[in-house]
Design a protein that fits this description.
The chain has 205 residues and is α+β, with helices and mostly antiparallel strands. The chain has four helices and nine strands; from the N terminus they run E-H-E-E-H-H-E-E-E-E-E-H-E. The chain starts with 8 loop residues before the first strand and ends in an 11-residue tail after the last strand.
């Protein structure tokens, strides 16, 4: 199968808005669209809502490098939106950032550096599909981390799971039907922080 040495960076921003503040989140999303368009490096972005509740949201982004992501984090309007969210609109949030180690999509497998997977506790798998993925498809090999529906399309879903180890990731790719799956990606999370746990947060955030 074709392979590539590209190693994009994934960002998973899970947020729980305060009661009655959901519209503020989407207001900032609209305001930041022109700013995002000015920045190079964003490969892909989609937003989802949690399947198990009606208030948790996920923004999943793929950037071409840490540098591009850092440039976006320093954007003035973006930083103002972050501060407003923390002070007024968010009950809680969690941000995870990490290099993509592999991507399985149709006949294309993109791999980067599996040697990094010695830190198996920092692995995260995202499964993009056209239907809800049952827990029985992965419960022997991974723990469910979150399940979301696409906000812009009813047939877009993403399931986040924490795999037991690298062999479990390989088992997952063979167990889940490719007829229903659009993409499976493996990330090595290097930063994981929230509103209350700031140990791995950037110092100036």
């Amino acid at each position: 199968m074709p392979k590539s040495n590209q190693a994009p960076v994934g960002l998973f921003f899970e947020v729980v808005p305060n009661s009655g503040h959901l519209h503020h989140y989407f207001s900032y999303v609209e305001k930041l669209k022109p700013e995002l368009e000015k920045h190079k490096g964003l490969i892909w972005l989609n937003r989802y809502e949690a399947q198990l509740d009606d208030y948790s949201l996920l923004s999943h982004q793929l950037w071409d490098s840490e540098k591009s992501l850092e440039n976006w984090r320093q954007n003035k309007q973006h930083r103002l939106a972050q501060k407003a969210g923390i002070k007024k609109h968010f009950k809680d949030y969690r941000i995870r950032i990490g290099q993509r180690l592999a991507c399985w999509q149709a006949d294309l497998v993109t791999e980067t550096n599996f040697e990094l997977t010695s830190k198996s506790d920092a692995l995260l798998v995202s499964i993009q599909s056209r239907t809800v993925i049952s827990n029985t498809a992965f419960n022997k090999h991974a723990v469910l981390d979150g399940a979301y529906n696409g906000l812009s399309a009813s047939d877009q879903f993403i399931t986040l799971v924490t795999p037991n180890d690298l062999p479990s990731v390989m088992a997952l790719t063979s167990l889940i039907s490719t007829d229903l799956i659009d993409k499976i990606e493996l990330f090595l999370i290097s930063r994981d922080y929230s509103m209350t746990n700031r140990i791995q947060a950037p110092r100036d955030s």
